[in-house]
Every structure is written in structure tokens, then in C-alpha cells.
Amino acid sequence: MRTVLDRLLDYVSFDTQSSEKSQTHPSTQTQFELARHLAEELAAIGMERIRITPQCYVMAELAATTGCENAPALGWIAHLDTSDAASGRDIKPRLVDYRGGVIELGSGHTLDPNIYPALDHLTGQQLVVTDGSTLLGADDKAGIAEIMTALETVITRRLPHGKLCVAFTPDEEIGEGTQFFDIKEFGADFAYTMDGGEVGGIEYNNFNAAQAELNFTGRSVHPGSAKNVMINALKLAMEFNAMLPSEESPEHTEGTQGFYHLTELSGSVGSARATYIIRDHDATNFERRKAKIEAVAAAINAKYGANSVKLAMKEQYRNMSEVIDRFPFLIEIAERATRQAGVEPHCDPIRGGTDGAMLSLRGLPCPNLGTGGGNYHGEDEFVSVQQMAEATEIIQNIIAEFSQR
Ligand SMILES: [Zn+2]
To answer: What average pLDDT score do residues 152-161 get?
Structure first.
């Protein structure tokens, strides 16, 4: 049987970087190479109904064992693409027995506990690191390796289980991981994503998210004869920004504190454009923030004339806790399964969204579990071999609990 480490090292040899600039689905054709490789492996370990969709979703199933036919169908999801923030080609992973201190990666990159305090928890563990020239791709190939290893263990040991479903998805890193995810076709009643973070992490409390686009219209005249005539659109944008609470921004908030974040500002005297993202875990506060943006835009229009600013607000995703709170056993089972693997569970709020958030709101309740990696989307990415083994055990424990429901 291949170990979870063997599998990770195999999967990261495939360059599966997704691309924001692409118009195709999947965004890069190279993702199909790993998809086909995974489909073959799913067949080899004994999974059934294996298919790859035209958009590069790999799906497979395993029928329930005798006596477990009434257990809910349980899904496992991980993404096969890697971030485009660093190269994902020709990755040269290296194993390090970590004894504390600084790890020299190469190409001027180091893993320094003064910069990454999480390293202090990893003394005594074996880490997989990069050579400093690429990312590692443990995000999210560690998740795939853990799911595959857990499934193989369940099958070869003939452990009891309900119906199991698995999906490896493309284009998560460009925010399109669930765009063509067919929940009905997937066939699960509940699922977990295995995507990132320290093992023991159980994530289901993510941001509510919206984007506000503001187009300011000024009146551009010669500055020499501008008195009482000119309206400078750039200054309208600055005035707008000054009316938002300046402390409620990403650089001043943490935990469950929400924010307004100016992500883009451009323009001239005649016209200007500003984009904000709005984030809040709490649904009421989220509505209050959206109302604040609307009120400030209305105030600008009242002062400078109708249509001085036009606002377009777009909701992006919602906090999956509003769904997961109706199925508390999903979290209770994950917590028990984690403790059973000798790991203390922790449910910290996520300051972002997950594919599971999208799926939960669309009808497939889907918390996220930690895979044992860190420093994603860059050359400093690493994963702990011990934590990958623990995450694999957590998956098996959850499958065992579900078989008895
Ligand atoms: Zn990921």
C-alpha cells in the first residue's frame, strides 16, 4: 500500500496551476493529466463509477457495505489545481526532520519561526518543504493524498461504511472550484472538504462576502477657471473612503471582526472608479455594512448631485454556519474523530471563504478539515508528514462514525 507521503510526492510532480486569465473550463488543460492519473488510481484501489467531467471534475463512488445501506452518503472533496501566486512546475520537494530553528530552503527563502510562529509546534515532526523556487502544492494535493489513502485503507481492511463519494475539483484557486460541481451527480448527503491548515482544524464559520463597485463622475474644466465649477472625481472617491470607519479594514482586524477593504482605485478628474470588498461573519453586521456603503454613496449624491456616484453591489458568498448550524452532528463527529486520532480539535473562524461554503449554501453541507500544511500560495509552503497521517486517520474515523448512523 502506498503511504500518504508517497502519494503527495507523486501528485506534486504534476504541474496543475490554474489561471485567472483563462476563459476555458478547466482554466488549464494540464489539470486533466493529474485528473486522469487520479481516476486510474481510484480504479486501482477499488472505487466504482469513476468519471471525469468535461470541466475536469474527477468523481467516484463506493457502494455501502452490507448492513450500512441506510447510513447517509458521505462525500470527500479536495482540489487538484495549485495557486498561480508561485510556480507549480518542476517542484523539488525535500524532507526535513525538523529540530527547530531556521530551515534554509534555497533561492534566498527560509522558514523562520520568528516569521512563522506556527513552526514552533512542528519541532520533532518530519516536514516536506520546497527548494525555494516553486510552491509545494500540498494545497491541496495533501488533501487528495489523505482522501485516497483513507479510502484504500477502508477498502483493503474491509471496514464497514455507508455510500462514499469522492470528488477532486479543478480551478479552486481562481474561485471557480464549484462552478460546474453537480451536487446531484456527486450523490452525497453530506461532505467534508480536505483543504489546508493545521490538522485538527474544523472550519465552518466563514465570512459573508460582497463586492461594491463605485463609479464617480466629476466635472472636468480648466483648473484656471474652475472655481465653483469643477468637481474632481478622484476627490469624490477620497471623500467616500474617508466616510468609512478607517479602523474597520483588514490591517486593523482579526478573528470575527469584519471590514471594508479598498481593493482598487483609479481615475482622473472626470471619472474615477473604486472597488471595495465587504466581509463579516455575522449576517446582521454584514447587512449593516452593505447599508453603510449605500448610505455613504447617497450622501455623496446629496452633496454633489444625483449620479455623482453609481454603486453596484454584488454578493459573493455567505457564511456556511447558517447551514451547518442545522446539522451540528457534522461538527460533533469531526471533533470526536479528531480526538480519536490523538489530535485536539479547534474550530477557528475562517477569514475567507471555502468551496465548502458555496456547496453548503447550494444544499450540500460541507465543513472543511485541516490537512497539516501551511504557508500556502508561495515558496515557503510546507506540510507535516505526521499531520498528513493524522488527517488520514481522522477521515477513516469519520467514515466509521457515519457507517453507524
Ligand atoms: Zn486549497
So the answer is: 98
Instruction: Residue 8: count other Cβ atoms within 10 Å of its Cβ.
Output: 28
Q: Which of 81, 84, 140, 203 is catalytic?
A: 81
Q: Tens digit of pLDDT for each residue in 12-34?
A: 999 999 999 999 999 999 999 99
CA distances from 365 to 143, 207, 305, 321, 374 (A): 18, 16, 47, 9, 25
* Active-site annotation holds for 172: yes
The mean pLDDT of the chain is: 96
Q: How many whole angstroms from 12 Cα to the centroid of ligand 1?
A: 14
Task: Kindly give the distance from the C-alpha atom of residue 359 to the centroid of ligand 1, in angstroms, as a whole number.
Answer: 15
Q: Is the same domain home to 303 and 224?
A: yes
The answer to whether the pTM exceeds 0.85 is yes
d(CA 283, CA 173): 25
Could you tell me the distance, in angstroms and rounded to a whole number, from the CA of residue 142 to the centre of ligand 1?
A: 10
**Ligand 1 center from residue 221 Cα (angstroms):** 50
312 and 326 share one domain: no
